[in-house]
Amino acid sequence: MPEPSATQIGQQLSSKSVDLGNSQSGVSVDSWKVRRVSSFKVIVVLPAYNEQENLPGLLDNLAEALGDASLDFEIVVVDDGSSDSTPDILGEQGTQLPLRVQRHERNQGLGATIRDGLHFANQIAGPKDVVLTMDADETHTPGLILRMVRMIKEGHDVVIASRYQPGARVIGLSWHRRVISYVASGLMRLLFPTPGVRDYTCGYRAYRGEVLSRAIAAYGDRFVDQEGFQCMVDILLKLRQMPNVVIGEVPMILRYDLKKGESKMRILRTARKTLQLLAKRKLGIQ
Ligand SMILES: Nc1nc2c(ncn2[C@@H]2O[C@H](COP(=O)(O)OP(=O)(O)O)[C@@H](O)[C@H]2O)c(=O)[nH]1
Ligand SMILES: [Mg+2]
Prior knowledge:
Elements lengths: L5 H10 L25 E8 L6 H14 L3 E9 L5 H8 L5 E6 L5 H15 L5 E4 L10 H11 L3 E5 L6 E3 L3 H17 L13 E4 H11 L11 H9 L7 E5 L1 E3 L11 H16 L4
Helix pairs in contact: 6-9
């Protein structure tokens, strides 16, 4: 007989009625307002452009991490006009996972992809749900989601997986990319100091459903209006202007050594666009 999965075990355990010593009163926990599954859903948004090598492993690891924790989840993949077998992989996996796929007919860049992913997630998310974004390249480990969700439930509205908190590690990233990221972090902390934030650019983040919805209502289509990789810092600059948005970070182990294929970030272009954006925002230009 095949062994039950961790999810099945979790469901069996949580469906048992627990006797809390009230049997004399004839009240079983079953008749109380006890939830057997989580009271919220985790919606994971994955921007994907030609990620045929990384997607199968990432989707397996995501399902394992979220299933082990008995979390209710959905995965939203925005396929940004991939020309490899990303669409086929998503078609196959869609029969086995709670997966929703949005497809751009042609490649539009990370900004448009994150925008469409977040807007779609916002449509299906309730206020208590947690919406996450992460790279589809296996460098962001799904195990960290549990801690990020925990932090949202502890009172944060946005949680960033950070390379700059004690305990963080960066494995396999070239030294020049590390230097650029480090300088970028220092510059942003100087120009836009934000309590709790050191990593402004990382794509691995969690948002409270209620706050995402509030941000989209406040900014509309402008919430994500940067085309390229600079969209991540821009989203944060917008969130930090909203009242009562608590942002926190959790240390991340960035496993760049697990990435298959080349980075799709064009470093010089991203650096130039990011500097232009920071200058504009500092001058108060929207
Ligand atoms: N939609 C879209 N996503 C992209 C594009 N380029 C990269 N991505 C995705 O954005 C994420 C970050 O890209 P990645 O190559 O991992 O950049 P790096 O981690 O900074 O080296 C990955 O999930 C990519 O699939 C693009 O042109 N369009
Ligand atoms: Mg990446």
